[in-house]
Amino acid sequence: MDVIQTQGLTKYYGKTRGVEDLTMSVPEGAVYGFLGPNGSGKTTTIRCLLGMLKPTSGEARVLGHKIALDGAAERTRIGYVAGEVRLYEHETGHWHIDYVAGFRGGRGALADDLIERFEFDPSKKVKELSKGNKQKLALILGMAHDPELLILDEPTSGLDPLNQESVYDVIDERVAAGRTVFLSSHVLSEVERVCDRVGIIRTGRLAAEEDMRGLLGKRLRHLEIAFAEPTGPAFLADLPGVDSLTSVSDRVLKARVKGDAIDPVLKRIAARQVDDIRIQQASLEDVFLEFYRGDDSAPDTAEGGEAL
């Protein structure tokens, strides 16, 4: 079953585009990364999936139901962690957990476990908490009831590396238990760590979908080759997928190689005696910028006054 389905989903704020003609699906048990530059429509999409916004046209279905503004019953099956945490400053973590539990009919099977794993002190008032601890509380509130679908918008914002890893472990465990995760993140190492598939949204439209293997197959590599004899850039310049060729010295070349082009490059290099070679893989962020970034990457502040 597809846990999330959108068909022609479009949302305009007056004449300003939020998201346009978005059609995608997220299967049960997947971790789907939703990527895009600021202003691309990520948060508008999430708000439409949650029934917080009414689409201008098209529709969204979540857990088999068409989403509506009054879809409270469906939302009990969803866990949401917002990109901007909004909490009651003068109330404690305990108060927030009990308050949300009142809407769900119970405290949540995972509440105590998450408190322990995130090393969170629920006795403190929100105004006493650091940004990272506020994020921990938001995660506990969104995940405590073990929802069928987790929608996470920048879930590890403000967390240190150890707590980030704890969040990833929880995601892994929930997916192993059959849950589905829809993850929007600017931290592309995070996407690489947890996602099975990614959708790339740009200027409100779905620009591409890739499984992680396919996306990582486009990964760029930076090569530095030390030859035993003088070798100039012309030696590799005619090979497809090779650019940024420079000579460090008469025997050392640097080059950038795209995706599958690495095989013919290595075969060409093997034709000469090599003293040393270093290959450094570029980050997923470099891949994203290389293949999917458009010229129109300026933030669009139509979505609630924020650059998203």
User: Can you give the mean pLDDT?
Assistant: 88
Low-confidence stretches: 295-308
Structural class: alpha/beta
- Fourth-level CATH superfamily of the domain at 2-77 and 147-215: P-loop containing nucleotide triphosphate hydrolases
Helix content: 25-40%
Q: How many alpha or pi helices?
A: 11
Structure description:
With 308 residues, this protein is α/β, with parallel strands linked by helices. Among the domains are: 2-77 and 147-215, Rossmann fold (3-Layer(aba) Sandwich); 220-281, Alpha-Beta Plaits. 31% of the residues lie in helices and 30% in strands. It is built from eleven helices and 14 strands. Mean pLDDT is 88; it is low at 295-308.
Give a quick summary of the entry.
With 308 residues, the protein is of the alpha/beta class. Helix content is 31%, strand content 30%.
Helix and strand arrangement:
Layout lengths: L1 E12 L2 E12 L3 E5 L6 H8 L7 E6 L2 E2 L5 H4 L2 E4 L11 H12 L6 H7 L13 H13 L5 E5 L7 H16 L3 E5 L3 H7 L2 E6 L2 E7 H6 L2 E8 L6 H4 L4 E6 L4 E7 L3 H8 L4 E8 L2 H9 L16
Keywords:
308 residues; alpha/beta; Rossmann fold; Alpha-Beta Plaits; four-stranded antiparallel β-sheet; 11 helices; 30% strand; disordered C terminus
